[in-house]
Design a protein that fits this description.
Radius of gyration: 16 Å
Mean pLDDT: 85
Structural class: mainly alpha
Helix content: 55-70%
Oligomer: single chain
Strand order of the largest sheet: 1-2
Shape: globular
Distance between the termini: 40 Å
Number of strands: 2
Number of helices: 6
Strand content: 5-15%
C-alpha cells in the first residue's frame, strides 16, 4: 500500500498485513546472504529479536531455493544456537521442534 513520500522524495510503502512484511523479509534474507552460513547467522539474530514468523518463512524459502535446503539450514542453526540467550535458545528450540518442522526439517526426515 502506498504510504506517501518520505523527506527525500522516496516513495514509502506499508504492508496491509504483517505476514506480507515477514514473507518479503524472509525472501530478501535468502536472496542476499550466503547459504546456509550467513542465513543461519541471521536466524540467530532474529531469534534474539523474537521474529519467529520470519524464521519459519526463511526455512520455507530455503526448501524452495535449495534441495534439502531447510535440512541443511537446520543443521547450520543447530551448530550456532548455543550462542543465544536463554530466551533466544527457547524460541529457536520451539521452532526447530514444532509440528511440521519436526517432520520435514529434521535431519533424519525421509526424502
Amino acid at each position: 500500500v502506498n504510504s506517501g513520500v518520505g523527506p527525500d522524495g522516496e516513495l514509502l510503502f506499508a504492508f496491509s498485513h504483517r505476514q506480507f512484511l515477514e514473507f518479503f523479509a524472509a525472501r530478501a534474507i535468502m536472496l542476499r546472504n550466503d547459504f546456509p552460513t550467513e542465513v543461519a547467522d541471521t536466524i540467530i539474530r532474529l531469534a534474539e529479536a523474537e521474529q519467529d514468523d520470519v524464521i519459519e518463512m526463511i526455512f520455507d524459502e530455503a526448501d524452495a531455493k535449495v534441495n534439502h535446503g531447510a535440512r541443511n539450514l537446520r543443521a547450520a542453526v543447530t551448530s550456532r544456537k548455543m550462542s543465544l540467550s536463554p530466551g533466544g535458545l527457547t524460541r529457536i528450540d520451539a521452532i526447530l521442534d514444532s509440528g511440521p518442522v519436526r517432520g520435514w526439517w529434521s535431519p533424519d526426515a525421509r526424502d
